[in-house]
Specification:
By secondary structure, the chain is of the alpha+beta class. It is built from eight helices and eleven strands. It comes from Urochloa decumbens.
């Protein structure tokens, strides 16, 4: 069963600590007060090392990866979610599962944009070049135009802002939050050589199709979620069992049983018609739904009246 997430994740985030932990636990002071002590040359170093390798165009991220060509292996037709169906299971890796939440006021004080990238970098410095790349991609994702007509989206860095966006998008503050089971590994699942069989399927939302908000964890030094609503949706909790083959060995890294949440977008009429997904189905956007699994740490919000 999907699990209510926030009390647990908040405690985990606070325990994670880090240079900016004071922002999450309420210690007085400016954001990472150490930044005022950074030398000018350090700022230039972080910026030049990164900007020399990536421009805005190069760093453009396909933020809604469930609907982009680069991740089409993550997409499934809805009819696969029936008991007995078999599939190669792909669930994306968790981006930043252990990042700490910031206080609401601290999160709002960070100038979250690629234009202010140097200042954002120095807020969380020092960091690796790999993290700097991820931060740029995350900021680009947050600034990217809406992927689908009618999509509502926001990047959130505090529990309050995440709940506030979900409440606004769904028209109610009476919400339930769900997350994929912990038996989905943080590194995700990619099983080109391991088939999974659908053992059980349970509808999470009571209505045939309901409005929901999905929040994807993003790679960032602090907790940051890309939240969006592409409605209506159907939500399923799917239990899958790995098929045992003659060559199967007990050292397989793929878990034998997986319970995961699947989101199916019902109205796909405004989706990208160039996706190979439609070619494989022999359909056009609007003629079939499109589904994907949630990664570990992602959060799904639904009105309490339908979940």
């Amino acid at each position: 069963m999907g699990v209510l997430l926030f009390l647990v994740s908040l405690l985990v985030g606070l325990a994670g600590g880090g240079r900016c932990a004071s922002l999450a636990i309420g210690v007085e002071g400016t954001i990472c007060s150490q930044r005022s002590e950074r030398k000018v040359k350090e700022s230039k170093h972080y910026w030049s090392v990164y900007s020399d390798q990536l421009t805005k165009g190069d760093a453009k991220i396909y933020h809604n990866w469930a609907h982009r060509i680069a991740s089409e292996k993550l997409l499934y037709p809805e009819n696969v979610f029936t008991a007995g169906s078999k599939m190669n299971l792909y669930i994306d890796r968790a981006a930043a599962l252990h990042s700490a939440w910031l206080r609401h006021d601290a999160a709002n004080s960070i100038p979250m944009s690629t234009k202010n990238f140097t200042e954002v970098i120095m807020t969380f410095a020092p960091m690796s070049l790999a993290m700097a790349r991820d931060m740029w991609s995350t900021l680009s994702s947050c600034e990217h135009p809406r992927e689908v007509a009618g999509e509502q989206k926001a990047c959130t860095m505090s529990v309050q802002s995440m709940h506030g966006f979900a409440a606004s998008a769904l028209g109610t503050s009476e919400l339930r939050a769900f997350s994929t089971s912990l038996d989905v590994p943080e590194e995700g699942i990619g099983s080109p050589s391991n088939r999974y069989r659908v053992a059980a399927v349970r509808a999470v939302t009571a209505k045939a199709a309901a409005n929901t908000v999905t929040c994807h964890s993003m790679s960032f030094p602090a907790a940051l979620f890309y939240c969006h609503a592409v409605n209506p949706t159907r939500i399923y909790e799917v239990t899958l069992q790995r098929e045992k083959e003659d060559s199967d060995v007990t050292t397989s890294k793929t878990p034998p049983v997986v319970r995961a949440l699947a989101v199916c977008h019902v109205n796909t009429s405004a989706f990208d018609p160039t996706l190979m997904y439609w070619v494989k189905l022999g359909r056009k956007p609007g003629e079939a739904s499109m589904c994907h699994f949630l990664t570990r740490g992602d959060v799904l919000w639904a009105p309490a009246s339908v979940a």
